[in-house]
Amino acid sequence: MPGKPNLCCSVASKKSRIEMFGGMRVLLATSLLLLPLGSGASISTVLLDASNLQLNFAPGKGELPVLASRDAEALPERLATLSSRLESASVLAVFDGASFGGDFAGADWVCDRLSDTAVPPRVLFTDGRRTSADDELVLRLQEIGNAECAASATRISSGAATVLLERPPGDDLTPVIGATLLKSAAGKSKRQRREAFLRSCGLTRMGDQVHLPSFTPSQRTRSLSLLRAIHKIEPGVVRVSRLEQPAAIIVSDDRGLRRRCFALASPPVVLGRAQFFNWLEQEERARLTGAYPGEAEAPLADLDEDALDDD
């Protein structure tokens, strides 16, 4: 749960913070704007598990605060860049009502608009009693999946997934691949190395799942490297699938919430904190330079694919 909002000023008391926000509680209670949805062939909504991501607030241009994070400078501008990149996808940050001492339970507002091509982020606090942030996020994902007629994940082989990512990227080819750990790898001599590799993928326990996106060149490079290594491991250890036309992205490191999202009939793209903020950084660099950075999203230290071969 995040601490008190850091408004980058000397204001410290609860009373002063509420006065700085002006009539926010009255404004927020009457703000009932709905997030627009796009087509089922593209990402229409990005949902942030804001309390888990330890998001905070900073003063906005108007009376209402905007989102801030210690993991990303100028977070509102970076979210606007991502929204534009996803063809005006909506961004919704959901806080648990108990965050910030419960001062904003039930609050709901739309942040400043920074771009004509980006939908301004919306901030929502649950009521803190009947509905948790996890329940709110799962409910919205179900509604989005139903409204967008998003398809379920389709099982494919690791080889087929590798070939898919090796194809030239395009606007219509940014596949998201899912990987599920089914059992421990056999082979005593290489088990430790295989398990270390699987942990680097986020597959620590049996049943763990991760999504490998390819929205940027560096994401594609890293996902392809991981899939090639997974292909070296004996069959039946990792199940690979492809998300067909996902309509939403959710960002959270909460293990329980992630499991619930993976299990939905029309699953969203599930990203972790590091994946998401790396993506924001890549989009910002692309905006400034006109091209995506060429390096991988994160180094695969000392990865020897031959060492993952079966005994």
Account of the protein in words:
There is one protein chain. This protein is of the alpha/beta class and 311 residues long. The protein has 2 domains: 14-148, no CATH class; 153-243 and 294-308, no CATH class. The protein is 33% helix and 16% strand. It has helices at residues 14-20, 24-29, 75-85, 133-148, 158-166, 188-200, 217-232, 255-262, 273-289, and strands at 45-49, 56-58, 66-68, 90-95, 108-110, 122-125, 153-156, 177-181, 209-212, 238-243, 248-251, 269-271. The protein has a 6-stranded mixed beta sheet with strand order 5-6-4-1-11-12. The chain has a 4-stranded antiparallel beta sheet with strand order 7-10-8-9. Strand 2 and strand 3 (66-68) form a beta hairpin. The longest helix is centred in the C-terminal third of the chain and has 17 residues, at 273-289. 41% of the residues are buried. The model is unreliable at 1-41 and 295-305 (pLDDT under 50).
How many separate helices? 9
Element pattern in H and E:
HHEEEHEEEHEHEHEHEEHEH
Q: Given the C-alpha coordinates, what overall shape results?
A: globular
Low-pLDDT residue spans: 1-41, 295-305
How do the strands line up in the largest sheet? 5-6-4-1-11-12
What fraction of residues sit in β-strands? 15-25%
User: In angstroms, what is the radius of gyration?
Assistant: 20 Å
